[in-house]
Amino acid sequence: MKFERFPWYLLLGLIAGIGLGLLYTWVISPIRYVDTLPNTLRADFKDQYRSAIAAAFMASGDLARAQSRLALLGDPDAVQALSAQAQRMLAAGESVDAVQSLALLAAAIQQQAAAGSTESLPSSVPLLSPTETTSAVAAGPRQTDTPLPAPLETPTPIQTPTPRATRTPTPTLGAPFVVVSQEAVCDPNLPAGLLQVIVKDAANRQVAGAEIVLAWKDGEERFFTGFKPELGNGYADYVMTPEITYTLRLAEGSVSVPDLSAPPCQASTGEQYWGSLRLIFAQP
Amino acid sequence: MPRWIRFLIALAIGAALGLVYGWVIDPLEYVETTPDTLRLDYKADYALMVAEAFQQEGDPNLAARRLAVLGGGPPIDIVAQALEFALRTGYSESDIGLLQNLAAGLQAWSPPPEGGPP
Description:
Chain A folds into two domains: 1-167, no CATH class; 178-282, Immunoglobulin-like. Chain A is 31% helix and 19% strand. Chain A has helices at residues 8-28, 43-60, 63-72, 78-91, 96-115, 136-139; strands spanning 178-185, 194-200, 211-216, 219-224, 235-239, 246-250, 257-260, 264-266, 272-274, 276-282. In chain A, a hairpin with a 2-residue loop joins β3 (211-216) and β4 (219-224). The longest helix of chain A is centred in the N-terminal third of the chain and has 21 residues, at 8-28. Mean pLDDT of chain A is 77; it is low at 117-169. By secondary structure, chain B is mostly helical. Chain B has two domains: 1-31, no CATH class; 35-107, no CATH class. Chain B contains five helices and no strands. The radius of gyration of chain B is 23 Å and the shape is elongated. At the A-B interface, α1 and α2 of A face α1 and α2 of B.
């Protein structure tokens, strides 16, 4: 039997070829990130981008433009992303204005979706997938009143001019809010000590972004309406510790509601549990 | 065939395999990038967002902090680039006006001293 010698030089050539390729791509001409898209940004930069979108929305009230810009970030659920970021910023003690603008933008999008209104939204706002390379200019930001420039790269659908959307009701410096309803809720399905707050304006519309100040003997907590838009734009909640007494007010101006605590409830089986409280604020 | 030619062929095949792997099988995904790498039109739109907010807030410090995300250059330069892009690509007059207002606001602005209050 004759054994042929293994052609080691071929294997060596193969490995050297791969090595040369890596040397070229990693050392001689390493990747330089240029002309990237917003959806590729690192998470913390996406947060800053979202904050800028919300700040611009607060200034212009242009919801369609804000939605087009949010679409560039490629979040599967923009409302969820805004709400989650607002919660993170709130926990980090960042400025109330920045948090509120995110909450208001989330609420405005949710409100428009709930209303099923398509008139104020462009029919062709593209939701970019990570691989799309649509020009930012054509993807939305210029759709309101700037003529569309020629796309920089791939052709993009032409969008029709969009009317400016109406703004979400926000807390105003009108008459102070008053408590129109305060009730204990005995529902064993709710978390023990759940404090539910609903804020409405004078037109009986729920108000998103209203800051709620909850104080107790050793501390204070601030939270906002609108973070759970599925329960209403003017809804907010907080889980109270049983047997602690709280005082609640709205930062925008309201009467203080003292002596709030989780009410004792009794189940049909006779078992005792801590119930919930529901407060409704409204402007007269 | 001489052995050195076969070696070169193997070398070329190895390089080709590397390219196929890198470009087809497991292509590079652009993730975790920084805003300074954004394409110019996105940078311009970001500057416009800052300009929109500045129009209402009137706070050049805050605007400069927001613009700093786009890179280490002076904020006024970033706005100037955005303005140049806006003029070249036909932004609306109102948007151009917003960018001009921001540029004017930043021209009169000087960065706060290091370690000082924001």
